[in-house]
Write a sequence for this structure.
């Protein structure tokens, strides 16, 4: 990845389907409030267009090597934009009480569909359980490490 794209090193997260590259762009001097956000949006949009061919080449190489799509997030201060990302369908079986929760969210206008309501609920849980999820991921990594050090059958 070109070293002049981001301020500092980008962060990379990986799951089963997707690689997400998050990079901080240089700050913009756009005033306060909405003007600042508009300046950040403009800078990110310009960066997205200027780097399109290189990002596509990097994404294609990564997809061949790792078997995953690549998404990009450009940030400036508090503003960020996620693009070329996946929305992966996930099949789940829910019993009536769980479906009723989703239907309540739809009926209340919180979500347009059960699918959107479930995504909203997962996002909310993720926001409120970040520390616990991080501990769980660390514990799973330790288990994987111990398994790899164990006897090979």
């Amino acid at each position: 990845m070109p070293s002049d794209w981001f301020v500092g090193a980008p962060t990379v997260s990986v799951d089963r389907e997707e690689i997400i590259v998050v990079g901080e762009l240089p700050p913009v001097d756009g005033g306060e409030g909405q003007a600042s956000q508009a300046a950040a949006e403009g800078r990110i949009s310009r960066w997205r267009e200027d780097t399109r061919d290189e990002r596509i080449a990097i994404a294609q190489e990564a997809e061949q090597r790792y078997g995953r799509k690549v998404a990009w997030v450009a940030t400036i201060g508090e503003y960020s934009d996620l693009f070329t990302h996946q929305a992966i369908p996930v099949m789940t079986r829910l019993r009536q009480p769980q479906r009723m929760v989703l239907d309540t969210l739809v009926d209340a206008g919180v979500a347009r569909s059960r699918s959107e309501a479930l995504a909203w609920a997962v996002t909310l849980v993720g926001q409120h359980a970040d520390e616990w999820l991080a501990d769980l991921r660390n514990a799973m990594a330790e288990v994987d490490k111990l398994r790899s050090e164990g006897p090979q059958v």
Summary: Helices lie at 33-50, 52-66, 96-107, 114-128, 130-149. DSSP finds five helices and four strands in the chain.
